[in-house]
Amino acid sequence: MEFWTACNGLTKLRPMPNNLADFYDTWIQDVIRAEELGFDGINAPEHHFMYDGFIPSPLQALSAAAAVTSKVRLATGAMLLTLYDPLEAAEMAATADVLSNGRISLGLGMGYRPMEFDAFGTAKKTRGARLTEGMAVMKLATSQETFSYEGKHYQYKDATIAPQPVQKPLDLWYCGGTSSIGARRAGTAGLGYWLATSPLDASEHIIKEYRQHGREAGWEADQLRTCVFKDIFIGETVEEAKEMAKQMMEYFYDEHILGYGYLVDETGKNLYNPPKDHPLYERFVDSLTCGTVEMIIDELKKYETIGVDIVMIQSTQQELIAEKVLPELRR
């Protein structure tokens, strides 16, 4: 398995006010340190119009990261493709790929916040179909000098982008949240599948569904790649680790998970301000990985067992993870 990490500094926490320039500089310093610590990749997310400065331009952030690193993978996680014209997005990503000498990975998501769709004048109800079509366009645009595409939502004739990327095509990942709908779409399209934070049993079920649909669509096993996002909290005791997770829920996740419709049921419906005893909220809380160093190692080994290719680690404890956890997983 590879181990990527989400660096700190692209959003502010309410209890820790600071200016945006300092926070963005912190992110660059964390990127440099992540490469030094031996992580295989880092990621930059995307949201818009946020009071806390949540980064709206992940490819710009990764281009800045490319200038201060030389080998770490640079991933969007997730870039909200449905807010862009996919041809424009392909050109932007190709430029970043050239600047990084071929280190860009694109985790592409459909988005879920109504205010973002409303502001950019795009339809939220067609986001799933447009994400699938948009990724098809990006694959063509970054693998061929000239291409044509005829879809329901996007049409291009004899189109080309400049510059052309170093990677042909670019490394594309379908960020499908935590529902089976996204897994089925990604598998059918033969795209890498990036699963949001979920408990192990739910992750295993969704990954099996992804691989099944991929096989049925005729894709080879090595074309069906998986990445999982894991929040990790390490303490001397389980209780200490859980207290760290509780603080993260209070300081950050409760607002973003409950207030913006992050949780999605199996019908694809976004849930706004559900009670904290809702099964999907409880599943999210249960998905936070809390424990001692030894427990974290054992848990991550289980993801390798179910065939996960990449673990995207969200943690403020990168130094500890690099020193104590990663060496045991790379033996």
**How large is the share of residues in beta strands?**
15-25%
CATH homologous superfamily descriptor:
Luciferase-like domain
Uncertain residue ranges = none
Largest sheet geometry? 8 strands, parallel, barrel
Q: Taking Cα atoms only, what radius of gyration do you get, to the nearest Å? A: 19 Å
Write the layout of secondary structure elements.
Layout: E1 2-6, H1 20-37, E2 41-44, H2 58-66, E3 73-80, H3 86-99, E4 104-109, H4 114-120, H5 127-141, E5 147-150, E6 155-159, E7 171-175, H6 180-189, E8 192-195, H7 200-216, E9 226-234, H8 238-259, H9 279-287, E10 289-291, H10 293-305, E11 310-314, H11 318-329
Parallel strand pairs: 1-2, 1-11, 2-3, 3-4, 4-7, 7-8, 8-9, 9-10, 9-11
Antiparallel strand pairs: 5-6
Helix pairs in contact: 2-3, 3-5, 6-7, 10-11
